[in-house]
Write a structure and sequence with these properties.
The chain has eleven helices and no strands. The protein is mainly α. It is globular, with a radius of gyration of 24 Å. It starts with a helix and ends with a helix.
Length: about 260
């Protein structure tokens, strides 16, 4: 089964929308199963698309781009895997053989575009400092439109030209380039987490950060276990804050009632 021009356009547009949605509206965010199902619907095999997307969703459980880290693009992998599975008629296994490598390739594109985005941000900041707000407003949307190409271009190349082109791109990249991207990608999580920590009430709850670090780094506790422990730890604090809020409301209500009695 070959792809029609309309199907190529729709699938490429879906990949473009995936990254655009992730960085703006977040209607579907990172729901891999949704993109597999929509791709299957475009190709006339919704069930296979749903199954492929669900499989990729399970593969990505526990994987998160924390603190600006880059991770395999599983929704893109689901789009490509579904396309290959449907068009070749060889099932999900054939699709995964190409979808997963392209998802890994998107890691390099993600890091590269984040670096470009930083350059755009610095330029926009320079316009702000010069009070050239019209130029700033024209520049900011540019990166929003460019960033989704990290998904759209690999998907287009993979579904039109297949595995040889993807492998050629991987082999064409010089070692110094890929090593540089890996180094940059390794630094991004540390920078991102440091930025997140500046907004957290560490003076009050910083001991939980130390506990989590010990559990993850020394006791090798899984991310899911840490998340459940974090929820359990947050419940008493949440209840305490709710109780304090209710007490404040009650005090305000009593003060208002006393004022009303004095006026009478």
């Amino acid at each position: 089964m070959g792809l029609s021009l309309l199907q190529v356009v729709l699938i490429t547009a879906l990949a473009y929308f995936k990254t655009l949605d992730l960085s703006t509206t977040q209607i579907f965010a990172f729901d891999t199963i949704i993109y597999g199902a929509i791709t299957g619907l475009i190709l006339g095999n919704f069930r296979l698309g749903l199954e492929t997307g669900a499989t990729m969703q399970l593969m990505s459980l526990g994987v998160a781009a924390l603190g600006g880290a880059s991770m395999p693009d599983y929704p893109v992998a689901a789009i490509i895997a579904t396309t290959i599975a449907v068009t070749t008629g060889k099932g999900m296994a054939a699709g995964l053989s190409l979808g997963v490598p392209v998802g890994m390739l998107c890691i390099n594109f993600d890091v590269l575009l984040k670096l470009i985005n930083s350059a755009f941000a610095r330029k926009a900041q320079s316009y702000v400092n010069k009070k050239e707000f019209k130029k700033m407003n024209r520049l900011i949307p540019c990166m929003t439109l460019i960033y989704p190409l990290q998904s759209a271009v690999p998907v287009f190349l993979a579904i039109v030209f297949g595995k040889p082109v993807v492998e050629s791109i991987l082999n064409f990249m010089p070692k110094w380039f890929t090593v540089g991207l890996n180094v940059a990608g390794g630094m991004l999580p540390a920078v991102g987490i440091a930025m997140l920590l500046t907004y957290m009430p560490l003076k009050k709850y910083g001991y939980w950060l130390l506990i989590g670090f010990v559990l993850a780094a020394y006791l090798k506790m899984a991310t899911l276990g840490l998340g459940i422990l974090g929820i359990a730890a947050a419940i008493p604090t949440y209840r305490q804050l709710v109780a304090q809020n209710e007490m404040k409301k009650a005090e305000i209500k009593n003060d208002l009632n006393e004022e009303d009695m004095e006026d009478e």
